[in-house]
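Contributing: when you submit paired examples, paste them exactly as shown. First protein:
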Amino acid sequence: VFSGSKHTPYQGQRTAEGFVDAGIKAAKEKAYENLGKKSGGSSDKSDVITLTDSNFKELVLDSEDLWLVEFYAPWCGHCKNLEPHWAKAATELKGKVKVGALDATVHQAMASRYQVQGYPTIKLFNAGKKTSDSVEDYNGGRTSSDIVAYALEKLAENIAPPEIIQVVNEETLKVCSEKPLCVVSILPHILDCNAACRNDYISILARLGDKYKNKMWGWVWTEAGAQPALEEALELGGFGYPAMAVVNAKKLKFSTLRGSFSETGINEFLRDLSFGRGQTAPGKVRKCQRSVPQSPGTGRTVNCLPKRILTSPMWTWRRTNYK
C-alpha cells in the first residue's frame, strides 16, 4: 500500500473487499495526518487521537501528558470489539489522559519499536519525560470502565497535588472555568482568624486537594468580604465563615457546603458530590466595578468576577439534583 512517500506490505484479506478497505483506510490515515484530525474509527467526533509514525514523537514522546495507546490492525476482530469501549474511555478521560490509536499494519516503525506482536496491544506512556522505563503494557479488562479506572489510578500516581490558589485577579479565577469542578472557599477575615488560623484552613484544603487530585479539580480561596460578587453568586456567607461551594461550569451547577468546615465534613461533602448525591441552589450575580488588582499578601483583591463568567448563565441555575 503506497501512501505519500511511504509504502507498507499489505497484510489484510486477499479479497476485493479487503483491498478496497485497505485503500480507503490508507487514504483516511493520510488525510488525518495532514489535518492533524482526531479519529477513532467510524466517528469523526471521537476523542481518540490518530497516531502515526510521523506524529508519534511529537504528540506522545515529547509531551508531558499521560497517554494510553492502542496498537491495532483493521482486520482484527478483537480490535473491532474494543473500538467503542476505547472511544468511550477517551471521552471520559478527556482533559486528564490522552488516548490514542495507531494502525500497526501501516505504521510499522512504532509498532516494531515497542515490540507489538499481537492485536490489540495497549501500552501506557507515563506522564512527564518519556523513557523506556516509562512505558507499561496494559493487561487489564477491555471495557471502558476497566480502561478508565486503570488510567485514573495511574494518573493519581503521577499527578502533583493541586495548588490552593488565592483569588487576586481575573486570571486566578479562570481555573473555575477550566476544570471539571472548582472548589471555592471563603475563609474568615484576617482580623477574625489570625495567620495561624488561616494556615490551618489552607492546610485542610491542601490535604483534601491531594486526596482528590486524580479528579483534576480547581481549588481557590478568598478572604471574607474581598469578593462580594463571588459570595453573592454562590450564596455564601449567610451561614458565617469559613464557607465553601463547588462549581461545575460545564453542567451549569453548583453546590454549597452545609456541614462543618472540617477535614471530615468537607471530605463527606466532596465524596457525595463525586457520587452525584449533593444538591444545588439557585445563584444570583450582579455586575460590579472592577477594582485595581493587588498582589497576594496586601489584603486587597479585585471585587468582581471576570466579565466572561459574570455574563454567562452559570450563575443563574435552577435548583436540581447534582449529577
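Second protein:
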Amino acid sequence: QSCRRCARQVLRRPLLMAATGLFAACISRCLHAVFLGPWPAATSGSSEGSLRGRKTTQLSDVAAAAPLGSSAATFATAQSLALLALTAATATAGVLGKRWSPGKREGVRAGRTSLQASWEPGRFAKTVAFFKGNPWKLLLPGFLQDGDAKVPAPAAARGAASSATQAVIIDWGASDKLPIAEAWGPLDDVVMGGVSSSSLSVRGEGERRRLTFTGRTSRANNGGFCSFRSRLFNPPLNLKDFSGLVFTARCKDGLRYKIQLRDNNEWDSLGWAAAFDLAPGEEVEVRIPFGTLTPNFRSQIQKDAPPFRPDSISSIQLVLSAFEFEKRLNPRFKEGDFQLELGPISAYRE
C-alpha cells in the first residue's frame, strides 16, 4: 500500500504530512541505529531502506497527495510525540540501570527508595523486530502498518491432510532444514516492561529431535511470563480434518504451561489456549483437543468469540506464566529457572 494512498486517509495538508513524516523518519533512524545497527541503505528513486524490502513513496510524492481530514493528522502527530517521550523514558531507565548492580536500579517515589529490576529496551526492540518485521513502523497508526513477519509453513505440515490418524506438522526444522531461529522466537514479558528471559535450541534427529525452551521467570516490574512463538505461517496450517494436537513434553520441575493458537494474522489479537501439567522429570504425551481451547485476549476470556477455525492456524505459542485466565494465579508456577523439552507436534484425528 503506497504512502500516497495512506496520506489521503491520514493527513489534511501536504506541509503537515512533510513535517510529521520527516519527524517520524528521523526518530526511526535514530532508534534503529541505537538498538539494531545501521539503517539499511536506500536505493535511488525510492526510499526502500524500510526493512524486508518494503517500498515506500518518497516524501516529495507524499506531499503531493490530496488533503483529507485534520483529526487524523492531529492523532498521528500526537502519537509520534508520545512515542518519542516513551523512547526517552525507556532509554533513561536503561542508562540508570547500569549505574547500580546488574539487573537492578533504584527508584524513588514519595520519599521512599526501592530496588526495581532494570528493563532492557534493546531486547524489547529485537523482539518486536522479529515478529513485526520493523519495530519502527509502530510509530505509525495501526491502519498504516503493513503485515507482520511471515515464515513458510513447515514442510512437515504439507502432508497433514492425508488419511493418517496422526500426522507430524512441526518437526522443529528437520524436514525443511529451516533454522529454528528463522521461524520461532522468544516472546517474554519484556514486551510489557518485565525482565523474564528465555532462549531456544534444538538437538537430536528424526523422531528424537527435541526443542529445548530454557529461561528464567521473574515477577519483577509486574511481569511473570516467558514464551516462544512462531512467526506467521504462510500459508496458514489447514487442520480442519483433525481433532487436535499431540506432542511429548518434559520439564525438570512440575509446572503448568499453556499452548496458544491463533487463527488470524494479527500480532496482538484473539487467541485459543489450553493449559497442561507436567510431572517433574518425566516425558509425557500431551493431547490438546481443539474443542477444549479457550478463546482469550491477553488472558481475558472472550465469551462472544467466533468459533475456532482449525483450517487457518497462523501461529503457535507455548507459554509459562504466573497467570492463567482472568488474572487467576497459576498454582503450579515457580519463579526462577526452567527448562522444557518438546518433541515434534502432530495433528491427530479421532
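If you have annotations for the second protein, write them as plain sentences, like these:
The chain has two domains: 3-122, 149-348.
Residues 66 and 183 are 40 Å apart (CA to CA).
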